[in-house]
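Practice problem 4.
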């Protein structure tokens, strides 16, 4: 029993190690690793240099980008890594470079020298493809007279961002608010611009919301839709430096009749489009959410109801004020004439956008409350108001 226990422990440790290695390999595959190989041939030997890192982790401000440098040669003497240098444009990309490990291994005829690094990428690094230069010292060759020159090789490093991406919307789209009718079908056209120098924009989702909530009833169209979210299968791709126009069909929610009395038509309205996209190198961004200003307009039914309600109430008030001054025979005639004059004056005022100042009342003609008040006033003082309007014209 004493001899069996150590073997059991060793078996458990080997099994655990195998699981850890398997998990690490699977994680590396999932992380879209980029491996670049350079072959170097000199009079003192031939060398293969591999530089590998996970692209999705290569973003500006990342303080720990794990990178692996592997140098192989058929001889017994290998190149020695010296340092990371600035890129081909003379730009220093790293705040700090830490060498985590270096372990040479000699298999039959092949010497392998792997280096593990933790790279701290500068926060102000622009999102684009860089060529990072690595400096190597040649091996010491017996009998070599004089110092051999160092070897410098360039490797691509695709640096991106996780926020403040370079997908934008054409400013002309945002300058002028869209006037829409409540309850109508609207098609919103957005002109998008990809300002990334080297990366595509692959749009995965667009979520449509509103301020205040409840303006959007649903998003329609043939694309895959989950509630108010449009899902692109495959992704909608905008190449570097290019523009793309997209159309988003939306069913706007109708407004209740009470909405015209709670300040809805005087409230700033907006649609917000929240984009989720990637840059083609495993980095996903979700901080782009432009707003499009709206101006709500009442439906024809709501406008007519508001007008008729104002006219009817105004007529009733007028009858109450004049009931002792008229004969019962002419009451119906007065009602008909009052309603007709109220409707005519309201339509004239609305079409001509004529400013009527009564009780210091101000408001937009898109607001049913304004129509209701004008209709009520038109029924009360319609003849005098109509005479004044005609004289003004």
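Answer key:
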């Amino acid at each position: 029993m004493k001899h069996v226990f150590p073997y059991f422990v060793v078996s458990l440790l080997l099994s655990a190690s195998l699981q850890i290695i398997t998990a690490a390999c699977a994680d590396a595959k999932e992380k879209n690793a980029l491996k670049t190989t350079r072959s170097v041939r000199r009079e003192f030997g031939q060398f293969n240099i591999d530089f590998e890192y996970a692209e999705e982790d290569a973003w500006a401000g990342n303080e720990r980008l794990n990178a692996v440098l592997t140098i192989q040669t058929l001889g017994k003497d290998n190149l020695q890594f010296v340092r990371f240098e600035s890129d081909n444009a003379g730009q220093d990309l790293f705040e700090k470079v830490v060498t985590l490990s270096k372990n040479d291994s000699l298999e039959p005829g092949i010497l392998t020298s792997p280096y593990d690094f933790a790279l701290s990428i500068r926060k102000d690094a622009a999102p684009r493809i860089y060529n990072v230069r690595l400096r190597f010292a040649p091996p010491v060759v017996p009998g070599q007279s004089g110092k051999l020159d160092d070897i410098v090789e360039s490797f691509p490093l695709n640096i991106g961002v996780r926020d403040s991406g370079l997908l934008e919307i054409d400013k002309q789209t945002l300058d002028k608010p869209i006037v829409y009718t409540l309850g109508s079908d609207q098609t919103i056209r957005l002109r998008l611009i990809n300002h990334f120098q080297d990366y595509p924009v692959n749009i995965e989702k667009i979520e449509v919301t509103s301020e205040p909530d409840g303006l959007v009833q649903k998003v329609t169209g043939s694309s895959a839709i989950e509630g108010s979210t449009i899902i692109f299968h495959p992704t909608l791709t905008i190449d570097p430096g290019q523009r793309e126009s997209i159309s988003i069909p939306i069913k706007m929610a109708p407004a209740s009749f009470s909405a015209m009395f709670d300040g809805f038509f005087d409230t700033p309205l907006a649609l917000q489009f929240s984009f989720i996209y990637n840059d083609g190198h495993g980095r996903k961004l979700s901080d782009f959410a432009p707003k499009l200003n709206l101006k709500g307009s009442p439906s024809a039914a709501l406008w007519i109801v508001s007008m008729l309600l104002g006219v009817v109430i105004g007529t009733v008030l007028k009858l109450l004020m004049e009931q002792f001054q008229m004969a019962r025979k002419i009451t119906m005639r007065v009602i008909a004439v009052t309603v007709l004059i109220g409707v005519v004056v309201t339509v004239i005022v609305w079409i001509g956008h004529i400013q009527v100042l009564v009780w210091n009342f101000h408001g937009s003609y898109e607001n049913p409350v304004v129509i209701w008040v004008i209709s009520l006033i038109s029924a009360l003082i319609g003849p005098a108001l109509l005479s004044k309007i005609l004289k003004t014209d």
